[in-house]
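Our consortium's second objective concerns turning raw sequence data into structural hypotheses that experimental partners can test. To show how far this objective has progressed, the report includes one record in full. It was chosen at random from the queue rather than selected for favorable results. The single chain below, 141 residues long, was entered without modification.
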Amino acid sequence: MREPGRPTVTGGGRVRGSRAAPPASVSAGLGTRIRLGDAEPSPHAREVLDTIARIPPGKVMTYGDVAEFVGAGTGRTVGAVLRRYAEDDLPWHRVIRSTGAPNPSNPAEALRRLIADATPLTPSGERVHLAAARWDGTPAT
């Protein structure tokens, strides 16, 4: 009989009856980490958020563009940072898919905000016209 509060090891070597503490961070690929829980954003996540905050109205960056501009991670890393740390004042809608499709978490709201920003759209009105709206990270003059 096992003691209360003590884990049991099964025949396959798995531990039953105990829960490991969740990790403080997870790998986001290519040497980047994203902190979990109530932790502050990692330096990488902070760079991603700062880059997104600087995208001017009427302009967009793809997830991959943000990763390339920051110099680390991938488009998926950028998406993970947005899911985890985006706040209402962050222009999350200005980060789009490489096809010009709006943010997949809330495409209708993203399109509404892009229209309010006067972002150029394709004739169908369902995608951003990337050739006209893509921002390269240089400050507006």
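The partners drew two points from this record. The beta strands are 8-9, 15-16, 25-29, 32-35, 61-62, 95-96. Residues 43-53 form the longest helix (11 residues). Both points have been shared with the crystallography group to help prioritize constructs.
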